[in-house]
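Re: that chain you flagged

S.,

Sorry for the slow reply, it's been a week of failed gels. I finally had a moment to sit down with the sequence you sent. For the record, here it is as I used it:
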Amino acid sequence: MPRGCFVTATDTGVGKTILAAAITSGLAAAGVAVKARKPIATGISRQERAAGDRLGELDDHELLAMISGERTEQVAYAQYEPAVSPHLAAQMSGTPLDVPAIIEELRSTAASAEALVVEGIGGLLVPLAPGWDVRGLAAALGLPVLIAARPGLGTLNHTLLTLEAARRSALDVRAVVLTPWPDEPDEIERSNRATIARLGEVEVATLPRLTVVTRASLAEAAAGLDYERWLA
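Prediction finished late last night. Pasting the structure tokens below so you have them in one place:
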């Protein structure tokens, strides 16, 4: 595999898409031929998009496609409308997920890119298909892993459990990224950052809240991350 990363999270809706999009934007702004993939997407809208739609209003795979300059079907191989776990979405649609085929497609994509950013779905133990979960997908790809996590109350248990699950499968976790990180973090948020670093024995970075999601704002946010080193 080339340089790249697998972006996961402690939960759904934590900010992994913004993290993946920020890294993709930063690489693209630097002239890197980067490709972004969210191979499995659920809860997609299927609605027509106008040319003036703001990036922040797009579905996750649409945002990554806009940032990387690719088609949505290139970014998300399996797309389901129900906003449920992928194994249930596949069951409801009658279209099972072929995880080995997804892995081969990602490897093929990686061979034609200077960098590959892959976003998972939900957390590491989310089931995909019989014998497969997100952790197994990440392990099969062998990319360095970044974990998006909330900065506030409750994040310690979620983040430390995610780190434990990752390390049980020998995933190479490069960093935890707390997002959205406030301009003036309170005592809990500051303590959480230090505690995750200490107990999790992991690098902890932060990604600010974006009031407007654009290629420029994403790239600017990524400038505060040491992603070049993480992706090496």
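What I noticed first: The beta strands are 3-9, 34-37, 40-41, 78-79, 115-119, 127-129, 132-133, 145-149, 173-181, 204-208.

Talk soon,
D.
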